[in-house]
Every structure is written in C-alpha cells, then in structure tokens.
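Appendix B. One record, verbatim.
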Amino acid sequence: MNLRLTSSALALAAMTCPAFADVTSEQVWQSWVDYYQSLGYTVTEGNRAKAGDTLTLSDVVIAVDMPDSQVTFNVPQVTLRDTGDGKVETVFADQMTGEVQGTDPEGETFSLPMTVDLPGNVIITSGAPADMTHDFDYPVMDFTLTSIASGDKETPLPIKIGVADSTGTFHIVSGTPAKYDYAMKSGKIAFSGDIDSPEGDKVKFEGSLSDLETTGDMTVPGTAKINEDMNAALKAGLAMSGALKSGALVASFDFAGTDESGEPTSGAGKYDGKGFDVSYTLSQDGMGYQAGSDAGSFELTTSDMPFPINYAIESGSFDMQLPVMQSDEAQPFKFAYSLAGLTLGDAIWNLFDPQGQLPRDPASLDLDVTGQMKVTKDIFDPANMTPPSDEDMTGEDGDMDAAEAAPQPFEPVEIAINQFALNALGARVNAEGALQAPSGDMTTPVGEIHATYEGVNALVDKLGAMGLIPEDQIMGVRMMMAMFAKPVTEGEDKLETRLEFKEDGSIFANGQQIK
C-alpha cells in the first residue's frame, strides 16, 4: 500500500506544480505536456479551442501507470492567456478529480477517488522558450478523500488536507537533459479525518502544520522512464534533490474499537512539535536522506494501559548516505543518528522505579558511523526489487539455507565508529574505533575498538537493590564486566575496554585473549 500512497502523493504534487509556459499559450501547453511526459505521465485533451489571445483545453486527463496501480487526474478546463507583454497566464479549473486504482498484495482490486480544489489559482510565466520561469499563487489547495472501494465493498474514508497561501517559482531549462528547480512557501496546512472501519473500529484525527518551505531540483535525461525503470534512468543521468522545512506541527487523535481478543478498547493521543526539516539526494553517485527535529512531545492514553504514556525530546537528527550502483570497488557510506533530551513521564518511571532511586535526567544518544562498502547489485534494478518466492526462500530440505546464502546487496569492507555516546540512568558510555575486512568478510574483521564507561558500577548496584537484576545474577554480571572492562583510575567508577581484532581471527580484550 505504501507504493500506491507514494504514487498518489507524487501525482498530487505534480498537479500542484505550475504548468510551463513560453511567450505564447500554445508553447505553454506543449511545454506542460512535455514536462509530464518526461516524468512518465500521459496527457490527453478532450477539446482544444483558441479565441483571441486565450487557449482553452477541456477534459484533460493526466495519468501514470505504476507496477501495481494507476493514478489518473481529470481536469475539466485549463485556460492559457497571452498577456501581451511576452508572458502567459495559466489558470486551472477550480476543481479537478483524481483516482488511484490498482491491486493490493492479496490480489484484491481497489479504487481511491479524490478531489482537488484550487480556487483562485494563477500562474504567470516569463522567459524564453528554452529557459522559463513560472511564478505561481495558490490561495487554497484542498485535497479531499471520501471513500475507498476494495473488491465489491466501499468504505467511507473522509480525509481532508487543506493548504493555504502557497506561492513560489518553478524554473525549467529545456533540452536533453531537461533541468527543473522549484521553491515554494505555504501558510497553514490543516488535516483531519473521521474513519469508521467495516469491523466497527473508529479513528478520528486532526492537526496542523505551519510555515512549510520546499525547494528542489531535478535533471531528467531524455531517455528516462522514471515510473518504469528508475535504475536505467539513474544510469542515463537522472539526478534529484530536495528539502522541506516546517514550523510547528500539532496533532491529536482518538480511537475506539475491539482488540485481538474481541474486548473493547479506546484511547486518545496528541503530539506537539516545534518544527522539523527533511532533505534528500538521489543520483547514480548515491542516495542520501537527512532529517532533523526540534523539540517535541507525545502523549497517549488508552484503556489497555492503567497510566498515560508520554515522552518528550529536545532535538533529534538522522543522516544516511548509501551507494546505489554495483561496483567491484568499495564506495563510501554513512549512518548517523542523534537524540537529545529524551525524557519519560513519571507514570512510566514509576512502573519499575516507584521509589525514584534512578536518576531521571534527560537521556541522549549520538551515533556516527562511516566506512566503505561494496555494492553487489544495483539497488534500484527492478529485477533485484522483486520479492523472493517461497521456493527462493527455502532450500531443498525446506529450511532457510537458501535465503541465508542469498547474496546481500551491501558488503562492508571498512567501518569507522567515529562516535558512540550514550548518556542515561546516570551512566555514560563512549566508544570509537575502526574495523577492516582484508579478506572481504566483515565477520572476521581486523582493527580496534576503544570504549569508556562512567557510573556503570553504581547503576548495577541500584538495579540489583531494586530487584531489576536478580540477586543470583549480580555476580555473573560483575564477572562479565571484569572480563571486558578494567578500571581507568583506582577508586573511581570509570572503566575502559580495548578490543583488538587480529588477522588470525583472535580477539583480545585489554590484552587478554578471549577468542
């Protein structure tokens, strides 16, 4: 279903992008058609009429076929007017309709209709035929779902997303390849839904997002068929990047229904966030995804739990960069994650620490790993993205040997732990190091990892006193710590571990061989 929702989202985004224009209305329309065709869409017009300086297109259908679905938009009318100063004004009909059709993983057909309202929309285009700039103004964009049909059943699906005061520019340089870049700002975005399932479950939600900003660019080679073969398009030169930044995000929801045992259940929750940002890159050189979040808090109450679940963070971030093309040469990768100021509600703490013996200071985690890896097969090759069959997943004797022996797309050959820092429950753990795989197999690496620990002994004492570590296991825990860690300074609760991985497969901890 994710692919279908993604396809629908892309189609909606495409419809809200401004049409391309030149110095005449005819050139505007053709540029608009060329744009959608470059992305794998088909554009057909029911009727075309020219009166004076205005070109009118009626009953326009824009569609794209995906592997398991089709997205179609019906635009009653598009008017393109030469303004007399070398510019063109484009206006879409105030309302258009769309539909996503396809087959779900169980083989059931489905249909998801929608409407898009764009009252007052206008696009002013200027420039030359090969270099055009489009300034757009959408006072209102309302996306509305009413129902979803699956097989012979139709289920109400009342969901609405409203976007206010969107303005920006869209720039195109035509040719082979074609190049696009855009920037848009929106005011408040409101969303809501009130959904009843055929089984009697009910979910209601609402929320808003403020001060949304998006930017991006894309290079599309003339031979690209993005919707059919992303891998081939990347090899031909497809490249794209984008960024999204938002202000406050608030949302609330409530639900009611039955659990797996048929017992009634209900609950409500809310989220309050100060803002976030997301960015991505994709080309044959690799893909990258970064995300960051400002302070946010979440709360959930449910009849299944006797207490509310709530937590808050001060900030968080995520950064992943991976190669996507097969190569015998190792390529760089990166994975980083950060979570700062994590706090839990007292009701959660009191479950296992009712006396307040453990420090409840905000926790944090920082992880930064880089390295080199070989890519054994193109990540976006359609042949490699097909789910394995049951026969592929089992060997001749019916076990999972075949699946375990199947080559993985990524083979790390160098890993550098630039930072691992965990601060929680009054204890601190820090580690760094580097490992290599001279033989090409990271299961027998060569290298060293160094770690330090503060407050761990005190934490073990408290956990033992609270009964969270059984008394008959305390000695085993301490023996394990003594095997891998040694005191840094006598009399202080600070330990260190130095793990050495040798070429012969042996492993040493603080100079003592453990393998």
